[in-house]
Amino acid sequence: MSVLALSGGIGGAKLAAGLCRVLPPGELTVVANTGDDFEHLGLSISPDIDTLLYTLAGIDNADHGWGRREETWTFMGALETLGGETWFKLGDGDLATHVERTRRLAAGEPLSRITDDFRRRLGIPAQLVPMTDDRVRTRLRTEAGWLDFQDYFVRRRSSPVVREIVYAGAAEARASREFLAALADHTLSRIVICPSNPFLSIDPILSLPGVREALRCTQAPVVAVSPIIGGQAVKGPTAKIMTELGLPVSPAAVARRYADFLDIYVADEADADEVADLAVPVRLTRTLMLTPEDRQTLATAVLAAPGRGL
C-alpha cells in the first residue's frame, strides 16, 4: 500500500518525517509546494523542497525550522562585506544545494529529476517530488502593492496586510509526472494534507489543473491535519492571513477550504468544540510536534484515522 502527502515547509515537513519513520521504505510519496521557489543571487532556490530534503534526511536545523544543521555562514559574511543582498540567508552547506540545482536546471534537467537525485544521495527512503516542473509563483496583493512571496515572507517579514493571493502560472502548468503517477497508483491507501499553510503551501498544489478533481475522484481517503491549534498557527503567517482575508482563525475554517474532497479531519484535542459541527468525521489528537516522537505519534494517528465510509 502507498501513502501520498501534500506538504509545504516546516510544519508539513515534520509530519512527513513522522510518516517516513512509521511507513515501510518506498511506501511514502511527498509532493512539495514549489510556489515559494524563486531566483536569488543568480541561483534557483526551492525553499519547501529543501526543508523537506533536510528534515527527511535528519539534517535539518531544528532551532530555525529551515536550513541545515550545524550550518556555517562564511559566504553570507563575505557577501555582506561586499555590500551584497543578505536579507535571504544562505548557509554554506545550503548554498551547495542551490548551486548544484541551478547548474543542472541550466543544463536542461527537470526539477523533479534533480530533487529525486538529491533525496537518494541524502539517504531518504520516501519519494520526494515537486508539484510541477513548470514555473508557478505565489504572489500576494498587499497594502504595499503586489509582492512576490519571498519578498513578502522574508524581506518584509509578513508585515504588509494581505488582500489577495494568486498562483501565477498555475493555470498553464502541469502537475509533475511523478505526482500524477502517485495520484493514479492503484495501491494508494491514503492521501494526507499536511498541516501546512493552506493559502501559501497547499493551495498552490491544488491550483494545478486536474489536481483538485483527482482528489475528489480518488478511492483513497483524503485526510487533512489542522495547522491551527487554539486559534493560533504553530508557525508562520497562517492566522494573520486568515484574519486579513476575513476568515475566522479556526481549524474548522481550514477544513472547509478542503470540503470538496476531504474525508476526515485531524484536529488538536484543544479544538474539540471548534470542529464539532463539521460535515466530515473528525479525529482529535495532540497535533503539536515538538519532538521526533510527537511526529511519529501524529503520523500513526493520521494513518489510523477511519477511512472513507467508516
Gap between N and C termini: 19 Å
Radius of gyration, in angstroms, nearest whole number: 19 Å
- List low-pLDDT spans: none
* CATH-assigned fold name: Rossmann fold
Provide the helix percentage: 25-40%
The biggest sheet amounts to: 7 strands, parallel
The dominant shape is globular
Oligomerization state? single chain
Counting DSSP E segments of at least 2 residues, the number of strands comes to 14
Query: Taking all residues together, what is the mean pLDDT?
Result: 95
Determine and state the CATH class.
Alpha Beta
Order of helices and strands: EHEEEHHHHEEEHEHEHHEEEHHEEH
- Domain unit count: 1
Count of discrete alpha- or pi-helical segments spanning 4 or more residues: 12
Biggest β-sheet: strands ordered side by side in the sheet:
5-2-1-9-10-13-14
